[in-house]
Amino acid sequence: MSRLLPGTGLTVRRTRRRDLTRLAVLLGPDRDGWRARSFRRIVADLGNDVYVAESSGGEIIGMVSVVYARSLVHGGLSAIIDGARARHDPARELLEPLVAFAEERARKRGCRCLTARVDREDAELRATLLERGYGSGELMVTELS
Predict the structure, then answer these.
(1) Please, what is the average pLDDT of the chain?
(2) What is the largest CA-CA distance in the chain?
(3) Distance (Å, rounded) from C-alpha 145 to C-alpha 137?
(4) 15 C-beta neighbours (distance < 10 Å), count
(5) Which tens digit of pLDDT belongs to each residue from 97-107?
(6) 82 near 66, Cβ under 8 Å?
(7) Which DSSP symbol is given to 143?
(8) Which CATH number fits the domain that encloses residue 30?
């Protein structure tokens, strides 16, 4: 089931298993093959929502991924925007409605908190989040071998 993404003329829908090759354009190379091995489980897992924005011709030009978790500290269910990507010029014109869509979905699932993971070099997503009122906090990250 898809619906119109407000202000864009694009449709947004949950991703399907067959979308992986088309999503690769947005996500970049899968160097160690992890994404290809895990994508099916991610799409099927109720703790994850991956949505794609499609053009009228069926081209995937945006995506947003949300991960849900029960939180002892924040009380109740929390959500994390795991990533958002857009092939649009400028990207922020598509990122804004994708983030709004992710917020709506998290609210409907009963989340009390929504956090976003933003890569250091992702200026467009960072600007979109700040524009939507997200506060900058401290998130400590380390890569586990």
Answers:
(1) 90
(2) 44
(3) 26
(4) 21
(5) 999 999 999 99
(6) yes
(7) -
(8) 3.40.630.30
Instruction: Please check whether residue 139 lies inside any domain of the structure.
Output: no
Residue with tokens 């700040």: 130
Sheet holding 76-86, edge to edge: 2-5, 10-14, 48-54, 60-71, 76-86, 111-116
Neighbours of 134 (CB within 10 A): 17
pLDDT of residue 31: 84
Average of pLDDT values for 9-33?
90
Q: Give residue 15's domain range.
A: 2-131
**pTM: predicted TM-score of the whole model, two decimal places:** 0.89
State the pLDDT at residue 48: 95
Query: Could you tell me if residue 89 is inside a domain?
Result: yes
In a domain, 142, yes or no: no
Residue 25: the pLDDT is 87
Domain count within the chain: 1
Q: For residue 106, what are the CA distances in angstroms to 10, 35, 93, 100, 109?
A: 21, 24, 21, 10, 5
Other Cβ atoms closer than 10 A to 117: 15
Query: Which tokens sit at 26?
Result: 């947005």
Q: Could you tell me if residue 143 is inside a domain?
A: no
What is the identity of the amino acid at 94?
A: L
